[in-house]
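Table 4 source record.
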Amino acid sequence: MAAGLAPEIQLAQRLAANEQVDRARALRKLRKFISAKTQRTAGGFSHDELLKIWKGLFYCMWMQDKPLRQEDLGNTISQLIHDFQNAEAQHLFLQTFWQTMNREWNGIDRLRLDKFYMLIRMVLNQSFELVKRNGWEESQIDLLLEMLMKEILHPDSHAPNGVKFHFIDLFLEELAKVGAEELTADQNLKFIDPLCRIAAKSKDSTLVEVIVQGIFETIIDQAPFAIEDLMRELKANEKANKQTSRKRSRKQDRGTKGMTSSQEDDPELEEEEEEDDDDGKKEQRAPRRKSTGDIGPVLQFNFEAVADRLFELSSRQNIPSFNRNCLYKVVRKFQNLAKGIFPRIDFLNDVSTDEDDDMFSRKRKRKRRMRAKVGKEGDGKEKSRARNRGEESGMKVERKKKVKNRKKNN
C-alpha cells in the first residue's frame, strides 16, 4: 500500500480486504480514527472522505459470509455513529450512508441482498437511538427527518425503489423499538408528518400506495394493541399511586417516633414495606404483551389529530386526484378510530380452510362427472333417435318399392 495515500483511502482498502482478519483489524482502527479525528476542535470529515469510508464499509459487508458474522458486522458498522464526537459529523455520516446505498444498490446480487437489508435496518435503528440519546430534541428530530426525506423519498434523490420501500416498511417498526415507551402522540405525529406530505404531493402512485400501506394502514392495524398498552400503563400508574398513598397513610398512622422505633424492631412491618416497594416497581414497569402473537412495541397516536392532518394536506389545491382519494379513505378510518369504531376484519370470513377447499373440490368433481354423464346420455339418445329415424325412412322406402312392384304386376 502506498504511503502517500490519505488515511481514509488506506482504511477503505483494508476494509475491503480478502481476509476476514484484515477487515476486522481495519474496522477497529477505523473506530479509533473516527473518535480521535472528531475530538479536535478544528477536526472532522469532509463529505468525500466519508463517502470513501462508506465505500470501504460497503465492501466489508459485501465480503462477509455466514449470517451470524454478518449480523455482528452490521451491528458494529451501525454503532460507528456513536464514535463521532460532534453532531455535524454524525449527520454527515448518516447522509453519506444513504448516498452510498443509493449508488451501489443496483449492483447487489440477490444472494447478498438480505444482509444489506439488515444493514439498512440497523443503521435506521441507531439513527433513532442517536436522537433518543439527545433527549428527543425537536431540532434533532427535524434534522434527521429532513435528511432522510431528502436522500430517500425526494424525487431528486434518485433512490432505487428497493431502498425506498424497505425504508417505509421499517420506519414505524424501528421507531417503536427505540421510542415506544418515551414518545408522546404529538411526537409520533411529528415523525410521520413528512411522510404525510409526500403521500399528498407525490406523483408516483406506487410510492403513495406503499406509504399508505406501510405507514397509515399499519397504524390502523396496530390501534387495538396501542390502546391495550395505554390501558395497561394507566392501570399500572393507578396501582402505583395507590401503593404510595397506602404507604403515606401507614406512616401517618404510626405518627410518633416511638412507634417508628418499634416498627424498626418489627420484622413483619419491614417485610410488608419491601413487598410494597417491589409491587410498586413491578407495576410501574407496565410489562409489554408476551403472547405468542406479540407484534412488539407499538407507538401511540392521536387518531383525530392524524385524520385532521391528512385531511388538511389532501384537501389542498393541486393535489393529484389519486392521492386525494387514497388519503380520504384513510382519513375516514382514522375518524372512526377516534370515535372508538374499529375496522371490521371481514377477510377472515373469506379465507377457506383446507377442509373447505377439499369439500369444494369434491363438489366440483361431482358436477363435472354429472355433466359428463348427462353429455354421454344425451349423445346416446341422439344416436338412438337418429337410428330410429333411419329405420323409419328405410321402411318407408321398402313400402314404396312394394307398391310400385304391385302396380307393375297388375
